Amino acid sequence: MHQWSVQQWSVVVPAKRLVSAKTRLTPLTSGLGAAGTARHEELVLALLADTVAAALAADAVAGVLVVTDEPRAAAVVGALGAATVGDEPDRGLNAALEHGAAHARRTGATAVAALSSDLPALRPAELTAALRAAAAHPRAFAADAAGTGTTLLCAGPGAALDPRFGRASATAHAASGAVPLGGSWPGLRRDVDTPADLRSAARLGLGPRSTDLLSDTLWSPR
Ligand SMILES: Nc1nc2c(ncn2[C@@H]2O[C@H](COP(=O)(O)OP(=O)(O)OP(=O)(O)O)[C@@H](O)[C@H]2O)c(=O)[nH]1
Ligand SMILES: C=C(OP(=O)(O)O)C(=O)O
Residue 86: which pLDDT band, with cuts at 50, 70 and 90? Predict the structure, then answer.
């Protein structure tokens, strides 16, 4: 049960169609022939599911909204308890996040945050700590482990999300006035774009769906 006086966040998570998602991870599955495509899609879904499950379990989170046109992604996150909305206007990541944030606010959200969908080592407590820290500012963000990208962008009540994800997004978010959050949250900052990132996330400890998938020796990222 959440204390009424503490700010609760609506978290928006973007998820592309599986056919075009996470192409930098395909070296992990390209040697598996026809089965490789299916394995790649399972991996993308597992990363998403672990991220969404951790967010839903965070005390500071009122709900998770996944922006996607991918029926399998919608089914997986829906079963976990997330809401979904279609990817409109289908003009890339920032447009999808704007759409999700607007939808969340139309349906009652005040504080909204965009969270990367590729954080399989995310711990609910780190997300809560980051959101609590963000509540001190109109807009705030958490940079990724490399310091160049962004894994979390937060907009408090009345502030536009104004997402600037993409190349060098940490610099772009800071330039737009969002405050960088300095906490030690390794799982929150460990986005998985490459096989090396997946190995780093595995060292932190993956969520259950990614762990199950990678327990198959064909997959072992260690
Ligand atoms: N809904 C939605 N999500 C998107 C879109 N573009 C990117 N995303 C999601 O945003 C997250 C970050 O995007 P990227 O890092 O560019 O991921 P990606 O394009 O899947 O990965 P690569 O192909 O390896 O570059 C991923 O989880 C994507 O699924 C979009 O147009 N719509
Ligand atoms: C889109 C971004 O990152 P990535 O491509 O690493 O997911 C970002 O950090 O803004």
Answer: very high
pLDDT at 5 over 90: no
Inter-residue contact 162 to 155 (CB < 8 Å): yes
ipTM tops the 0.90 cut: yes
Spatial separation of the C-alpha atoms in residues 148 and 171, rounded to whole Å: 7
DSSP state of 18: G
Question: Is 86 one of the annotated binding-site residues?
Answer: no
Distances (CA, A) of 142 to 15, 115, 131, 145, 154: 19, 10, 10, 9, 9
Tell me the best of 13, 16, 50 to mutate to test the pocket of ligand 1, counting ligand atoms within 8 Å of each CB and taking the most: 16
Under a CB-based contact definition with an 8 Å cutoff, are residues 132 and 72 in contact?
no
Nearest atom of ligand 2 to the alpha carbon of 93: 1
Q: Which two tokens stand for residue 28?
A: 């992990």
**Averaged pLDDT for residues 76-88:** 97
Asked, as a colleague might, if the bond just before 89 is cis with ω within 30 of 0, I would say yes
Segment 76-97 shows an average pLDDT of 97
How sure is the predictor about 207, in pLDDT bands with cuts at 50, 70 and 90?
Answer: very high
Is 166 among the annotated ligand-binding positions? yes
Tokens of 12: 């928006």
Q: What is the CA radius of gyration of the chain?
A: 16
Candidate from 12, 148, 150 with most ligand 2 atoms within 8 A of CB, to mutate: 150
Structure tokens at 5: 């006086």
> In CATH, what is the architecture of 9-214?
Alpha-Beta Complex (3.90)
